[in-house]
Each structure stands twice: as structure tokens, then as C-alpha cells.
Amino acid sequence: MKTIFYNLIIFFLLLVLSEIVLGYWFTKDNFGIHMRKERNKNWYTVSKFNNKEYKFYYKRNFYGFRGEEFNPKEVKILWEGGSTSAQRYTPEELTIVGQLNKRFKSDSTNIKIFNAGRDGKSLRGIIYDFKHWFTKIKNFQPEFVIILLGLNERTLAQDVDEKLFDASVQEGKIDRIKDYFKNNSFFYSEYREVANKYFPKQTDGYFLDSKKLYSNFEYIDYEKAKNLKRGVSKENQKLLVQLEKRLLILKKKFRLSKIRPLIITQVEYNGLYDQKLFLINEKIKEFSENNNWPILKLDELITMEPYDFYDHAHTTPEGSERISNIIYPFLKEILNKN
């Protein structure tokens, strides 16, 4: 009996020692309680857009980026934004970033974009990324960040718990303790690798009825939106003030990180019907031009078609292709120049 007891103690001590030596517990750049929900995912997913079914694996790598593993030294160009950037329910090669990378590769350019999009993220969340996420990645020194901005920035002036949308940690204390363990444990990391390879989680996308979405459809392009006689409410004024404050904070982050931004404005399924989105885009353009940030005014360049979106904000593969076709020539010129 004593032999079994001593063997168990030795086994336990070896287990703890292995964790200390092989785990991430004492490295200064460990993720701590941050980003656990976004790391080491390989989910088998079935989605359906415009009566076409897509089966694929939704992957987020060790560092929390969408896609396969990479060497952080290779990352020179980031893509930032919320769910319209992450495109959770779209096969990676059919996302906006995936289609851009495919075109860069076919043009034999030495350009690759790495997707840091995360569901629900606004300017607030992008600021957090430069504090809690990117600083945790060793040898990570991107030179350029492309930011898809507009849709999620409509929440900046609302009385909304930002943890629900932008924070990279879970709310509950017990959940945070669990995440700290999962982020730092060597054995849990090994378990996740095996589970992802042989027992991937299965998920299905939930999508609105596009026929209902596009009933009585009217697209408001930039010229129409500009000519609409709509006053600016106090709420919208407050929103624009908050937007500029966040942009100023982000500007400081870029300066400290020695990273150059490139901004892309956004549209919804019905264009710029929402005045908040129109005003946000205009403020972003003004700020970018005043600070010499390159900006692609997608809201002025594009007219989306019916069924390019599967809900108010998220594009189908056809919509993503339309956006990538519009912005690719501009991105290629700007990125090659820089």
C-alpha cells in the first residue's frame, strides 16, 4: 500500500515538474486569462448561403488568429475588425481576407494578410488587442494593420457592457481561473491538439431568411445618403465624440507599436440606410485624412447586390468576393508602395 502511495506522489511531482518546465506558467509573454476562447480551435462547420451548402473547418491557431499556425516573425500585415472580418461561418478561402490573399498569391506578390478579426470587436476591442493580445506574442512585429471600421462602432456611445463585445477575458472569476489554467498548461495544450485533430467540435451556422431580408429592398448608396436631409441627434453627436476619442487612443497605440494603419469603411446590406453608419464613416474619413492615414472609402466605391449579405451586416461568399474585388487594386498599390 505504501509503495502505491509513494508511486502516486512521485507521479504527481513529476506531473507538476513537467508542467513547470514545459508549460507557459512563468513566461512573461504568456496569455494569462486573455484570448483563451479564441485560441486552438478546429471546429467542423456546416453553413448554407443562397441555397449552397459549405462544409469546412473553422480554425483559430495557437496565437488566436484565424487560420493555420504561423511563425510570428512572418506577420507583417494584420487585418483587424469584428465578426465581419472574422467571418466565422464562411470557409477561410472565401472570406474577404482569404480572397485577397488568393489574389496576392496569383499575382506573385510577397504579400500575405493575417486575420485578427474577432466577433463583436469595435475600436475599443482593437485598442485592447494592442494591450492584451499582440504584446503576448514573442517576435511579433507587424508593419501594417488594415482595419475594417464602421458597423460595430455604432455601439461606442451606448450604455453597453463592453466586456460582452470587446474584452478578451471572460466575466466570471471561476471562468478566468479555468482560462488561466488552459492558456498555460502544457498537458491541456497537448490534449487540445489531439482533440482538434481527431475529435473536432461540430457546429452549424444560423442564418436569416434572405428572402425576408430583401423584401421591399432599397439600397442607399453614398450619393443618396449624402443628399438625404437628416439632422444629427444628440445621441449621434455623442457617438462621434466617443469615436474620435477612441481613434486618438488608437493613434497613440500605432505610434508606440511603430505600425502603420490603413482604414476601410463599411456598408450594410442596404448600403448607408442607417444614418449612424453614414456619420461614422464620414468621421473616420475626416480623422484619417487629417492624420495622413491611408483610407479606402468602400462606402463610396461599392454598390452591393441582393443576396450579398445573409443578415444585416455579414456578407455571403458572393458579397465577400465583391468587396475583395473592389479593394484589391487599392491595397496592392498601397502595400507594394510601403
Write structural notes for this entry.
With 338 residues, the chain is α/β, with parallel strands linked by helices. It has a domain at 67-168 and 204-337: Rossmann fold, CATH 3.40.50. It is 43% helix and 12% strand. It has helices at 2-22, 83-86, 96-106, 123-133, 173-184, 186-198, 210-213, 222-227, 234-257, 275-290, 298-301, 317-337; strands at 41-49, 52-60, 77-80, 113-115, 144-148, 202-204, 260-264, 295-296. The strands form 2 sheets. It has a 5-stranded parallel β-sheet with strand order 4-3-5-7-8. The chain is globular and about 85 Å long. The mean pLDDT is 92.
Average per-residue pLDDT, rounded, comes to 92
Known CATH architecture of the domain at 67-168 and 204-337: 3-Layer(aba) Sandwich
Helix content: 40-55%
Query: What does the overall shape look like?
Result: globular
Which fold name is given in CATH as the topology of the domain at 67-168 and 204-337?
A: Rossmann fold
End-to-end gap:
70 Å
Radius of gyration: 22 Å
CATH class wording of the domain at 67-168 and 204-337: Alpha Beta
In percent, how much strand structure appears in the residues? 5-15%
CATH superfamily of the domain at 67-168 and 204-337: SGNH hydrolase
The secondary-structure element order is HEEEHHEHEHHEHHHEHEHH
How many helices? 12
Largest sheet: 5 strands, parallel
List keywords for this structure.
single chain, 338 residues, alpha/beta, Rossmann fold, 12 helices, 12% strand
